[in-house]
Structures are given as C-alpha cells and as structure tokens.
C-alpha cells in the first residue's frame, strides 16, 4: 500500500514537472525560431562610376544569396544548439526532481506508515488479549449446560459474535503485516476450490440455500499461488455469498479468475467502490461489521491480485471477483 502511495507521489511530481518544462522549453524554442525567421538580410550597395548599374545589381544578388545561405546556416546551428541545451537541461532537471521526489516521498510516508504500523500492532495485541477472556466465557457457558435460558442464550450468542469479530480483526492485522512471508506452491485449482465448497455446503443447506459451480478448466489444471491467501479470499467470498444470497450461490472458475455469484439484493453502483473498505456495509441492517471484504482486499494486494465487485443488472445478481496470476 505504501509502495503504491510513494510511487504515485513520485509519478505525480515527475509528470507535472515534465509537462511544465515541456511547455516552457517549447515556448522558448518557438519564440527563438520565430524571431530568427523574421530577421532578413538586406545588403545595400550603391552604384559608382566604376560599375554600371547592371553589374551592381548582379553583384548585390550574388552577395545576397551567399549571405542568406550563411545566415540561414548560422541560425539553424544556433537553433539546434538551443534545442540540445534545452533537452539536456530538461533531462538534468527531471533527474534532480525525481531524486528529490523519492526522498520527499519517503519522508512524507514515514510518519503515516509508523502510525499505521502502531495501529495494526494495537489491534493485534488487543485481539490477543480479548481472545482469552472470550474463550473463558464460552467455556464456562458450555460447562454450565443450562438449557432454555434466554438470558444465557443471549450471552452465548453475543460471545460468539465477539469471538468472530475478534478473529476478523486479528486476521486483518495479520494480512497487513509487512514482514509476513508469501509462500507459493503448485496446487490443483479444481480440488482447492471444491474443498472450500464442501466446507460451506452444510452452512448453506442449513439456511436453505444452494451452492452451484462451473469449471472452465481441465480437472488436472494446476497453478502456482499462495494457497493460504487464495483459500482465505475464496472462503470470505463464499461466506459472504451465503449470508446475503436469497437462494443460490454460484461459483465460476477460470484459469486466473474466480467469480462468486449471489442472487441477493443488487448492490447500488454507487456503493460498489466502497465494498472493500473497512467496516463498510452496503446494507446497514445486515449482520456483520464489514471486515470480511476488507481482509480479502488486503490479502489480495499483498499477493498482487485484484478483487472487485460488479452487478449483473439483467440477472439481478452480485458478482465478487478475484483475479490472480
């Protein structure tokens, strides 16, 4: 994220300065060229007793032609020298600006990066601290084994919600860790996707929903990728689809693209760009806290993948897409 921010800062400075220099240097060159073109050599020779008027005119014409050629050559040489000087100066200035931009970008981003890292460390540490008391609460509720008590049932439900939220916060902090190593391995893509589908089928059936799938790849198709990251994003997509679908969750698999299709309420186009923001929910009345897709985005960016959402207006379905290399 911060590499992209720095690169954007540097490119903005370089492109802006390049445009300004090109306009300024082009203006200088055009003005010089226009000035030279307007200058004319007009030699004047008066006739004398020793020369006839005709000889004077012929002599003037010869001199004028030679002088015009010499002046034209000198003007072209001076314009060429000016052009080379402008190009060399422009390249030198751009190099200096680029170096300064790199330094300034690093200095500008550093405080933000440090604050961001401190925030992530706090979330991770707080999640670890909260995890233990939540586990104790759930363990005590299970040990009490008191049935049909709505008050204890409410406590148990909220403890489960807090545990899920805590796990999501911890997953988000881990997904944005700068020093986490990316490990890639060759996997059978169809088997990998089917494992996730099989894991979520009981949950879908419990809610009266169906998971369908279509593969546009051979059964033995293999791809090299970060398996853990891929499964994490796919699981988030499927879980999100089950949560918001009316009846069906469709999964379409291609060589470098996974699409999870939900027949839930179509998401307004204005909200699509914000779906992967932290704590954003298109439907404020729905369950959850809006962290799942933010985790998917963070994991995808770390692996140079792309996640986004679209709406199929004719079919009235929502599409959640992962493009990977």
Describe the structure.
The radius of gyration is 35 Å and the shape is elongated. With 325 residues, the chain is α+β, with helices and mostly antiparallel strands. The longest helix has 92 residues, at 53-144. Helix 1 packs antiparallel against helix 2 (53-144) and helix 4 (189-206) runs parallel beside helix 5. The chain is built from 6 helices and 7 strands. Mean pLDDT is 81; it is low at 44-51. It folds into 3 domains: 2-112; 127-175; 185-323, Heat Shock Protein 90 (2-Layer Sandwich), CATH 3.30.565. The strands form 2 sheets. Strands 2-4-5-7-6 form a 5-stranded mixed beta sheet. It has a two-stranded antiparallel ribbon with strand order 1-3. Helix content is 62%, strand content 13%.
Descriptive labels:
elongated; Heat Shock Protein 90; 6 helices; 3 domains; 325 residues
- The secondary-structure element order is HHHEHEEHEEHEE
Global mean pLDDT? 81
Q: How many H/I helical runs? A: 6
CATH topology of the largest domain, what is it called?
A: Heat Shock Protein 90
CATH hierarchy, class of the largest domain? Alpha Beta
Ranges where pLDDT stays below 50 over 5 or more residues in a row are 44-51
**Which outline best applies?**
elongated
Major β-sheet profile: 5 strands, mixed
Under the CATH scheme, the architecture of the largest domain is: 2-Layer Sandwich
Lateral arrangement of strands in the main beta sheet: 2-4-5-7-6
The beta-strand count equals 7
Distance between the termini: 19 Å
Helix content bin: 55-70%
Question: What structural category characterises the helix and strand content?
Answer: alpha+beta
How much strand?
5-15%
Overall number of structural domains: 3
Supply Rg: 35 Å
């Amino acid at each position: 994220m911060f590499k992209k921010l720095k690169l954007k800062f540097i490119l903005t400075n370089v492109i802006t300065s390049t445009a300004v220099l090109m306009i300024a240097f082009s203006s200088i060159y055009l003005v010089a060229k226009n000035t030279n073109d307007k200058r004319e050599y007009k030699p004047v020779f008066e006739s004398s007793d020793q020369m006839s008027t005709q000889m004077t005119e012929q002599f003037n014409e010869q001199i004028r032609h030679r002088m015009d050629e010499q002046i034209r050559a000198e003007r072209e040489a001076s314009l060429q020298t000016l052009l080379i000087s402008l190009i060399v100066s422009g390249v030198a200035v751009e190099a200096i600006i680029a170096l300064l931009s790199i330094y300034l970008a690093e200095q500008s981003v550093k405080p933000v990066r440090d604050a961001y890292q401190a925030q992530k460390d706090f979330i991770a540490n707080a999640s670890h601290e909260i995890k233990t008391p939540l586990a104790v609460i759930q363990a005590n509720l299970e040990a009490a084994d008191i049935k049909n008590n709505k008050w204890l049932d409410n406590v148990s439900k909220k403890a489960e919600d807090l545990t899920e939220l805590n796990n999501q916060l911890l997953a988000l902090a881990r997904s944005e860790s700068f020093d986490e190593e990316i490990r890639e391995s060759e996997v059978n893509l169809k088997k990998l996707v089917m494992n996730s589908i099989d894991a979520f089928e009981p949950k879908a059936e419990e809610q009266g929903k169906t998971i369908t799938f279509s593969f546009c790849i051979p059964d033995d198709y293999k791809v090299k990728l970060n398996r853990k990251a891929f499964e994490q994003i796919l699981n988030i997509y499927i879980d999100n689809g089950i949560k918001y679908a009316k009846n069906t969750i469709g999964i379409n698999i291609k060589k470098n693209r996974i699409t999870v299709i939900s027949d839930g309420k179509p998401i307004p186009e204005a909200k699509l760009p914000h779906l992967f923001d932290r704590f954003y929910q298109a439907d404020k009345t729905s369950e959850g806290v809006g962290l799942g897709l933010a985790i998917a985005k963070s994991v995808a960016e770390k692996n140079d993948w792309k996640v986004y959402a679209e709406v199929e207006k004719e079919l009235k379905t929502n599409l959640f897409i992962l493009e990977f290399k």
